[in-house]
Structures are given as structure tokens and as C-alpha cells.
Amino acid sequence: MVDAYTQLSIYYNGSWTFVTPSKVISESEGRKFYQISYKFKLVKDGITNPVQGISRKAGNYIAISENGVIDYLSESDYRNIFPIKNTNPRPLPVTSSNLKDPNYLTKVLQESPTSSYNRPTPKNP
User: Within a domain: residue 118?
Assistant: First the structure.
């Protein structure tokens, strides 16, 4: 592992210290992904000073492979691998059987949010 980043240091309580991440947020293709909550550095193998590394912002991500190599991922890189899932179900399309139901349109109107832009504005006398 020549020139590989294998160590992680964080800035905590005014100093840099080596850490081992513990809370895996996802896994893929033999790599474990972590979000780092503190300002952090990736440090090359064999370096004993936690200050000597590449600085990264808090809130970004790292991936650690099975052989211990650490890769940096920005928020957008992470979201490309693990997109946010849409939790809102898609509405079912309106069918002719829906429209034949006499309660369907009433239900749609009752469940629709009220808004003033759909109503005519009263004129002042």
C-alpha cells in the first residue's frame, strides 16, 4: 500500500487525533461508508503525526475498503452512489372507473389544499 491513505484523524477539542470510525452508514462492493462529523484529515500509511494529511470538511464521507485503504467522498459523490429514496408514493392514475364513482370528485376536492389563487377576488363596491 504505497502512498495509500489508511489513517483518519479528526480535529477534536483543539487538537488532531487518530480515530477509527465506528458507525457504518452503508456498505457496497466490499467498502464501508462513514459520514465524519468533525473536520478530518486522511493520513498516508506509515505517518505517525495526525496533522500530516489532506484536510476535509466535517459532514463529508469516507469509504474504507477491505484492505484498509480510505477514499474521500463529497456529499454529491456519496449521493451518486446512494441516492435519497423518494418516500412519497406515486399517485395512481385517474381511470374511468374513478370518474364514474360519484364520491371521487367530492373526495378530491375535500383532500385538496385550499388556496386563495383559485378563487375570484371580490370587487370593492
Answer: no
